[in-house]
Amino acid sequence: MDPINVTAAAEEFTCNAYLVPGETTTLVDAGTMPNVEETIADKVEDLDRVVLTHQHADHVGELDAVLDAFDAELYAYDDHPRRDVALADGEEVTIGDEPCEVVYTPGHAVDHVAFVGDERVYSGDVVVYNDGAFENGSFGRTDMTGQSRERLIESLHDLLDRLPDTVSELYAGHGDAYRAADGDDSVRTVIERALERAERRAPKYDE
């Protein structure tokens, strides 16, 4: 079953939180939309795990509410009081029915990871399809304390190096999901375009 953006109706600033039903029903990030656990409960009977791309506030604001509502395990790269499983680069975690490789992708956040399967990539904020700054391939902001454009560029290279050619869908933390079947580009092309723009080193947003 296709991932469901359970924060799509949010009126407040949030990330995209993707519910992925399957043998291992998974929520990728929790977002900040109040009562998101009720939206999840409307879609599935149970939630097996929550996996975090990173722990910026817009990705974990409703995490406690989700964990309180379901008997779900929390998978995170960095320490968290409720973490059950520590993620590490190169490990495999099943999201829905798809085994995904954990790829460490810092730059936007020091604890950032992406999840790369054979068909889908859950990219968090390291790369997005559109975000108001760029269309058809953009990258996470790197202008705040603790962020690094140079490290994000390295992460985009790493992501491309470990991206199977079979990946056809990109589910990012912000903006629209991208499916190659509905567009003119492959997911690899979208990420390569984001990398090219990041390597220009120009500010992402106007001052």
TrEMBL record:
Q: Which residues form the Metallo-beta-lactamase domain?
A: 14-174
Q: Does the keyword Cell membrane apply?
A: no
Q: Entry's Gene3D superfamilies?
A: Ribonuclease Z/Hydroxyacylglutathione hydrolase-like (3.60.15.10)
How far does the signal peptide extend, from start to end residue? none
Could you confirm whether the keyword Hydrolase appears in this record?
A: yes
Q: Which UniProt keywords apply?
A: Hydrolase, Metal-binding, Zinc
Task: Cite a single GO MF annotation.
Answer: hydrolase activity
The protein's required cofactor(s) are namely: Zn(2+)
Annotated PANTHER family: HYDROXYACYLGLUTATHIONE HYDROLASE GLOC
Q: Which protein, by its recorded name, is this?
A: Hydroxyacylglutathione hydrolase
